[in-house]
Amino acid sequence: MSLSNQQPNTPHQDVSIKKVFDVEEVRKDFPILQRQVHGNPLVYLDSGASAQKPQSVIDVIARYYSEQHANIHRGVHHLSQEATQAYEDAREIIRKYINAEHSHEVLFTKGTTDSINLVASSFGRKFLNEGDEVIISALEHHSNIVPWQMVCEERGASMKVIPINQAGELDMVAFESLLSNRTRLVAVTHVSNSLGTVTPVDKIIELSHGKNIPVLLDGAQAVPHMHIDVQAMDVDFYAFSGHKIFGPTGVGILYGKEALLNQMPPYQGGGDMIEKVTFEKTTYNTLPHKFEAGTPNIVGGIGLGAAITYFIQFDEQSILDHEQDILHYATEQLSQIQGVKFIGTATNKASVISFLIEGSHPFDVGTLLDQQGIAVRTGHHCTQPLMDFYGIPGTVRASFAIYNNRADVDALVAGVKRAASMLL
Ligand code: PMP
């Protein structure tokens, strides 16, 4: 099912006819899955950290550098115009994918971290004052904690944290009581990277908007698993990374509502973001350029467009069904191993499993799995406050993507059994 002979960076491609999802066919699109690690076939269960790339994305990147590269938005020459067109076509693919109203509401960034820092820095500088509050949750990745801490400290504002229960679900009663006339923004994750919890974003947005408070969602872990419609959600800011949705690293998106983005000052100064510069005063460019200073990650943007083109060829429901099947199969199989304890048991979960083998350190489990060619994540997953809540240093995390099959789960289960027998 490789798309390598097509032109995945054209926005006008008809994607309304969806391909039937077949995991064995999908696996053929990802060349890295053919390789061996420590003499074993690679079992890649770390897509939550970064997903692998299909051949169509690799081809688009190679083609860009061998045939199209020039700097964008500035040149009158042919190559510059072609590169600009490809980059702006990618923005349009992404706009359509998340159903933003305008393409200038889709800002290219370096990734989720950069997107959140943009909002914290720009929105924070404009709207946060002494005594104001920003609400986050106990599930957050450091990249949706630290930028708020930094700007709150600078502006004399403070952070409030929505607590969770033992299953790793948000306490929505507590959330409602945290919302006040001092709240300036609610910034929460859509899917927890450590636990897989899918948060009740519709309710969060409804309650926040009831008090005229904008909402930022960290969509880093949601975008590769579910359909995102920013207008249907009525979300104010939505941040995600290209590399977790089968695209390149170093590129990501911040969606922001036009009205809000227009009120916010630029994040960084430099080329492209200006209208007119004199030594006395600079006026700024319109959206999206106001927030895109300097030469961007051109190939990253184009590669992300190709990744989304790849992803949307499949029926969303069949991807969701497949990943839920893998999640439930893995949960059921792992639960039969003596000593395995799950961390995060929310009712609504994406395909992420965090666990411990009681009496052993996650690093040791991860190392033993690695020796069998099985790539999992170990550690605190950039969620130290969440690990503190559970009183643990970290977990072993298996995160699944569209290319994982039941054989991957079987390999993980066999690997964990082996690790447990060696460690206990
Ligand atoms: N938020 C969440 C929920 C994440 O999982 C990650 C990546 N682990 C990030 C933010 C940061 O993403 P990036 O490193 O691509 O900026």
Question: Care to describe what's here?
Answer:
The longest helix has 21 residues, at 78-98. The chain has 424 residues and is an alpha/beta fold. It has two domains: 78-311, Type I PLP-dependent aspartate aminotransferase-like (Major domain) (Aspartate Aminotransferase, domain 2); 316-423, Aspartate Aminotransferase, domain 1, CATH 3.90.1150.10. Strand 5, helix 5 (146-155) and strand 6 form a beta-alpha-beta unit. The strands form five sheets. Strands 4-10-9-8-7-5-6 form a seven-stranded mixed beta sheet, sandwiched between helices. The protein is built from 14 helices and 17 strands. 38% of the residues lie in helices and 16% in strands. Helix 11 runs parallel beside helix 14 and helix 12 (362-370) packs across helix 14. 4'-deoxy-4'-aminopyridoxal-5'-phosphate binds at residues 49, 111-113, 141, 143-144, 189, 193, 218, 220-221, 241, 382.
Fold topology:
Elements: H1 23-28, E1 36-37, E2 40-41, E3 43-44, H2 55-68, H3 78-98, E4 106-109, H4 112-127, E5 133-137, H5 146-155, E6 158-162, H6 172-178, E7 183-189, H7 201-210, E8 215-218, H8 230-233, E9 237-241, E10 252-256, H9 258-263, E11 274-277, E12 282-284, H10 298-311, H11 316-335, E13 340-342, E14 352-357, H12 362-370, E15 374-375, E16 377-379, H13 384-390, E17 395-399, H14 406-423
Helix pairs in contact: 2-10, 3-10, 4-5, 11-14, 12-14
In short:
With 424 residues, the chain is an alpha/beta fold. The protein has helices at 23-28, 55-68, 78-98, 112-127, 146-155, 172-178, 201-210, 230-233, 258-263, 298-311, 316-335, 362-370, 384-390, 406-423, and strands spanning 36-37, 40-41, 43-44, 106-109, 133-137, 158-162, 183-189, 215-218, 237-241, 252-256, 274-277, 282-284, 340-342, 352-357, 374-375, 377-379, 395-399. Helix 2 packs antiparallel against helix 10 (298-311) and helix 12 (362-370) crosses helix 14.
